[in-house]
Amino acid sequence: MSDVNAFIALNRFGLGARPGDLETVVADPVGWLRAQVSTHAALAPALNDQLSSSDIVKDIFSVRKKKDKDLFNKTKKKYRKHFKSELARRMGHMVTTETPFAERMVAFWSNHFTVSRTKAITGPILPAYEREAIRPHVFGKFEDMLQAVTGHVAMLSYLDNTRSIGENSVRGKRRKKTMNENLAREILELHTLGVNGGYSQNDVMEFAKTLTGWSFGGVQSRKGKNKKPIHGDFEFFDVTHEPGSKTILGKTYQEDGVNEVKQVLTDLASHPSTAKFIATKLVRHFVSDDPPASAIRQIEDVFMRSGGDLAEVSSALISLPEVWGDPIPKIKTPYELIISVLRAVDGKRIPSYVLAKGLISMRHDPFNAPSPAGWPDVASYWMSPEALMRRIQWMKTVSTRISGTMKPEILLEQTVAPVASEQLRFMIAGAPSADVGAALLFASAEFQRR
Amino acid sequence: MINRRDFICASTMAGLAATLGGSSVAYASAPSDNRFVMIILRGAMDGLHAVPPFADRDYKRLRPKLAIRNPGEKGGALNLDGSFGLHPAFNDLLPLYNNNELLFIPATSTRYRNRSHFDGQNFLENGTGVPFGSKDGWLNRALSHLNEGDQRLGLALGSSIPLILQGSSGVQSWGKSPFGELNEDFLMRLTYAYENDPLFSSALSVARNAPQIEGMDDDGTKKKRKKESVPLFAKATSELLSRNDGPRIAVMEMTGWDTHFGQLTRLNKLFKQLADVILQLKSGLGPHWQKTQVLVVSEFGRTAAENGSGGTDHGVGGLAMFAGGNINGGRVLGKWPGLSQSALFENRDVRPTTDLESIFKAVLLNHYGLVENIVEDQIFPNSRKLKSLTGLSL
Known about the structure:
Largest sheet of chain A: 2 strands, antiparallel
Radius of gyration of chain B: 20 Å
Strand content of chain A: under 5%
Largest interface: A-B, 39 and 34 residues
Helix content of chain B: 25-40%
Number of strands of chain A: 4
Oligomer: heterodimer
Number of strands of chain B: 13
Order of helices and strands of chain B: HEHHEEHEHHEEHHHEHEEEEEEHH
Order of helices and strands of chain A: HHHHHHHHHHHHHEEEEHHHHHHHHHHHH
CATH topology of chain B: Alkaline Phosphatase, subunit A
CATH class of chain B: Alpha Beta
Shape of chain A: globular
Mean pLDDT of chain B: 83
Number of helices of chain A: 25
Strand content of chain B: 5-15%
CATH architecture of chain B: 3-Layer(aba) Sandwich
Mean pLDDT of chain A: 91
């Protein structure tokens, strides 16, 4: 049954098989996965020549300041194009990578710490956000990722923290402005403790106070003697920070400016509720829509024992007995599905508009999640009849573009052979044409599952 | 019958083909300037609802809720010949009928006598008399004898090519968006492949049976765009078939005819849409309409009696509609078997009295002038006892 294990490694933990992958991985599926638990792999050096979020934000804010509408529109257009090209690079990397497990982990955390394209100005930096705040920590410490994400321009903007002003801060008193608790709430509910993690509305408000002042260069007005050059990095604004001590989850944090949040995040990262919440999400993602309690407990323990070491957590996931059971319990997300089709056809050129149309119509275009909770991770969300039709339609369309280059039976052998049903084999063998055969393969339950 | 003008045109083209391609016309018939549009209604259209036999006293007995009222009554059928009426949603087609450009053949069927969409449609399209009897379609085989098939005289709409047009002859296809409508053949294959997966099979089954609602064509983007649709395909078909160097034979597909429930409203809408398609073809083809035949068929029909959920179930005998400027229309053809219990096929369906293959042969022999041996040996093998229906063409 080791060919089934190779299938599991390549699909449950990977992004689908490329031609030859099944044969390569079959010797040692677990070893193949373990070797990918590497910060170097997650960093994806191939993507590192892209612009930093700092450069992009600085450019956009500088241009905005000039109040030249034509230039501003030109700049916006430039970065829209940049955004698209970076998404294409990212996708290309996922199609060709030898370390797909690392990419799956990147995608998992990117979705966990979702930022979405709702703000025009920070939209173009979202791929950079993933490179800067997610990738370096995917096999590092959870706390480091949490710190990096919370202080990133993309997150501060997305969850409105730049608008949060302490009532008793210098500026708050002068302008009668108040706090925005959005970021504080989402960190507690979505990033760390989970909605049932044991925090109160008061904890949210107190946490929000610590977060006041967390913003970035260029956002706040700079007049008179405070005038500083515009930049695109994190900046702590003392004038909007709520003074005084704050009590969160029963612990009092003394007034300490920018350092308060760091302390709070450190405590949140090591909280047992966080361990349980993260473990549940990981097990749901890699094992089953209904995550088994025993598996959650194991991951939770490793998370706590290791101090949130995500390399250890990732290795523990591979070692769960549950993951080597049912080979296809989960539905691929549309993004995973599209990547796995592209991997199966080994880099055959599919026009980018076809890819974009697929992602948009299947409602999974990157960095456009429906809410700060990210995309749900259960079949009931992805598999409405209409959604299935769109998946099938897309795959039928793509299949006509690769028709004649790949024999459906061979495609099957190279991808889902270890789990293919007799019915699927029969239908593919009897397909009226190569493109229909390929479409049947890609549209099959076996191919759409992992 | 080929008229003189068409014959001249055909001869000219045959001469051209011979010059370019060599020995094309030794036994194959000449290419034709004639147009043929086949409209396949997938899911099994209810012939008794489209062309109600209002004079048959069993009709209303079998269909207490679904029967169309008599001509002259409110919402009643449009009288065709005193025995058969036309569903009022086809009202706009009545001028065609009165102008002899439309005829109906009730109680039709292929030789297929079972009731699986999957097999029935394959049977209809492959032409061998056996479900999955060949991997190409009979219309594609016919195309290979029109100018040796090298002119791409066939036209498929959407990104997929229906089996009837699949085969060695190249065909053109026209589509609007990268996402084509999925053809029934493909979905049936997929349904089979999904058999062991309840999640996928139920999702697909629901999606396939979902009533199609107008204006629900949101494609996920904010932009409003004209998506691929039956009316759009009709427009494209008439446009392409009108071109001098365009295709000559098109296959259109319409889905949603599997009316196990909610038949009254669903068919009302589909009939209207079908009427619009035919009218669009006529207006879009302009002067070429005089050289055109449009054949509307379904894989089979539906039960003579209505079921308990306001619909009808799969049945054998169906209805063929034939339209065009080159038909001898204004008639209801064929032998009506009647709807008495003893007349029904297997006690439930309209007994078929006209073979669809006979109509297909008539199109190929009379409208396109293919020679009989090719039609009998290569396009519809083992079917010599099904004689070409005479008198359909002008």
